[in-house]
Amino acid sequence: MTDGLMSKAATMEIPINGTGDTGSLPEDDGLEQDLQQVMVSGPNLNETSIVSGGYGGTAEGIIPTSSVKGPAVRYNASFPGLRLLHAQGSGLHPPHPSPLAAGDEATRGIAVEKFDIVKKWGINTYKCTKQLISERFGRGSRTVDLELETQIELLRDTKRKYECVLQLARALTHHFYSLVQTQHALGDAFSDLSQKSPELQEEFGCNAETQKLLCKNGETLLGAVNFFVSSINTLVNKTMEDTLMTVKQYETARLEYDAYRTDLEELSMGPRDASTLCRLEAAQSHFQSHKGKYEKLRADVAVKLKFLEENKIKVMHKQLLLFHNAVSAYFAGNQQQLAQTLRQFNIQLKTPGAEKPSWLEEQ
């Protein structure tokens, strides 16, 4: 009965005029009674058809639902004017994800990953700041390696003193360069006057030769001092600085190690419930990770300090010998010894007025 009612209701046509008015519909007492009975007993969902259509035209088809799990739904093939869009045995397939949805999912994953990184950084910064403040106010304990700390402090003090030597050596180079330029200009002036003053030609000529000789020796000494400055600069601003960068990493690792050690100790002294045990296990894992990092950097610093000391002694022995021999030979007026000193340390002087060859000449 219900099947006949639904078929009758589905196939009934409702005329619509141009203004959208349905007009007067013929009364069907049988249909009204059937509808009242359906409202009392309820429809049988296992025999329900889903019909799609449009106003003012023929129905376009029936949406098949025979493959949907749950209460069975089938269509009524006796409906007139309906075209079936269903083939026997076919089923519904899930829609394929669109590229836009995949892009949104990837963006969401990247955002979550960045959020986790920021979260870990924030927790680590908070713990380290807390540990640092506790150490400054004398309330927290810190791990100390007395031998290594002494060597690090000695390195920093040595670097400050070498920077002072480097600054003074650069000032000496600047002033001595001005002296050499002045001697060169004075020699040219004496030479010009010797040609224009016949009565003082010999005296002006001797002074001109003396200033030119001093200028030549000065340029040789200037080359030795520049080599000394360059070597000290490499030792201070590259070799020592590289070791101090490792020292900074070691100090940061030490602070993190102490921060997580303190956190682990505080959790160990607290109550042992389920949540605390989970936190204690995580704290133990973080502590072991930072402990390994701290011990590795401590070993790296010890090795670098050892090699730095050996390299410093070797470099400074050579540079101090060069500086002493060059300055002594210059002020003693020993031109041969000064030139020999530069050859001994493989120092090549640039020829005055020489320019860098063009790229065509280098080919």
Structure commentary:
This protein has 363 residues and is mainly alpha-helical. The chain has eight helices and two strands, in the order H-H-E-E-H-H-H-H-H-H. A two-stranded antiparallel ribbon has the order 1-2. A hairpin with an 8-residue loop joins strand 1 and strand 2 (61-62). Helix 5 (201-268) packs antiparallel against helix 6.
What characteristics describe this protein?
363 residues; mainly alpha; two-stranded antiparallel ribbon; elongated
Kindly summarize this structure in a few lines.
It is built from eight helices and two strands; from the N terminus they run H-H-E-E-H-H-H-H-H-H.
Task: Lay out the secondary structure.
Blueprint: H1 2-11, H2 29-41, E1 51-52, E2 61-62, H3 99-136, H4 146-196, H5 201-268, H6 274-332, H7 335-344, H8 359-362
Antiparallel strand pairs: 1-2
Helix pairs in contact: 1-2, 3-5, 4-5, 4-6, 5-6, 5-7, 6-7
Biggest β-sheet, characterized?
2 strands, antiparallel
* Helical fraction: 55-70%
Say how many strands there are.
Answer: 2
Q: In what range is the share of β-strand residues?
A: under 5%
Global Rg: 48 Å
What string, H for helix and E for strand, traces the elements in order? Answer: HHEEHHHHHH
Distance between the termini: 103 Å
DSSP helical segment count: 8
Estimate the global geometry from the Cα principal axes: elongated
Q: What structural category characterises the helix and strand content?
A: mainly alpha
The largest sheet has its strands arranged as: 1-2
Poorly predicted regions: 1-28, 37-75, 77-92, 357-363
What is the mean pLDDT? 76
